[in-house]
Amino acid sequence: MPSVNMNTKKHEVIAAELIAGKQGGIRLLELLGSKASGQYTFYHEGGAALLSVMNKGRTCSLLPSVPKDGDEGDALQSLLKQAIESLSTQSLSLAQIVLANPAPTLQVRALIEAGFEDLATLHYLERLSSITVFRTSTFAGLQFQSMETIGDDTLGKVLEETYIESLDCPKLHGVRSTRDIIDGHRMSSTYHPEYWFIGTIDGASACVLLLNPNDDALELAYVGVIPSQRERGIADSCVAKAIEIAQLDDFKRITLVVDSANANACNLYDKWNFEIRQSRQAFMYKLC
After folding, report:
1. What tens digit of pLDDT does each residue of 198-246 get?
2. Secondary structure percentages of the chain, helix, strand, coil, to 5
3. What are the backbone angles phi and psi of residue 87, rounded to the nearest 5°?
């Protein structure tokens, strides 16, 4: 009989260890300590376990255990379905799972049979900000205006334009509202409006560049260019801007995540000497 919504200390410890191992489970529980009551739920059945964590932007992240055999795979599938049933009543738009790449076959099978879709293979990239690159950006007329003087409505309108025919995780397009997407970008760290930009050309909006500081690293969270301004070197100029800021503000590293199927973006980051640190498989479930 599966245990559901079982956030007692004993059950949390058992489930966390099944998901992340003994030491990883301890660290997982420490991280969850800052979460408010009701913001996460453990599920546990036999040798399978699942953690659901509410995010800003009306999404939920799920962390499943790795099944050792078919019985545990069936148990994990059952837990996933129970979690989805519960999440579907909570005004959320999307549930996401990110696994190792390649992910264990039984784990993937449980996700797919529970109704999850394969979203993308994600590359996690990094470069040292101190690396000298003997090249310059290819578009000189681009001006950057930070969110210190821009409202969310303006940002939202430009963001929506950048999503048109975008090759970055296209299955996500239209699943979430622009308001939720902005909130989601702000979720990853403390929001610093001085690191979020709209790029303009002759006063007209052309692109969005979102950067999030994270300790000694600067995350390049989003680069998007509106369709009429693509293939002019504007994305290249955005990366150059990010590197410039990282150097000026003494960040040691620049990090980002890119959809491996987005060849244009992967080629761009390769030109700027970003290197793949790890790859992971992402899955999604549309909740509304």
Report:
1. 999 999 999 999 999 999 999 999 999 999 999 999 999 999 999 999 9
2. 35, 30, 30
3. -65, -30
Domains of the chain in sequence order: 9-115 (3.40.630.30), 126-279 (3.40.630.30)
What is the distance between the alpha carbons of residues 211 and 218, in angstroms, rounded to a whole number? 7
Phi and psi (nearest 5°) for 101? Answer: -130, 115
The structure's pTM equals: 0.91
CA 192 vs CA 9, 200, 214: distances in Å: 36, 20, 11
- Beta strands of 70-116 (E only): which ranges? 94-100
| CA-CA-CA-CA torsion sign (177, 183, 186, 189) | negative
b/e code 230-246 from CB counts within 10 Å (16+ = b): bebbbbbbbbbbbbebb
**Can you tell me the distance from the alpha carbon of 34 to that of 39, in angstroms, rounded to the nearest whole number?**
10
Integer angstrom CA distances of residue 11 from 21, 35, 75, 174: 14, 17, 16, 37
Q: Which pair of structure tokens corresponds to residue 179? A: 């308001």
pLDDT tens digits, one per residue of 148-193: 999 999 999 999 999 999 999 999 988 999 999 999 888 767 789 9
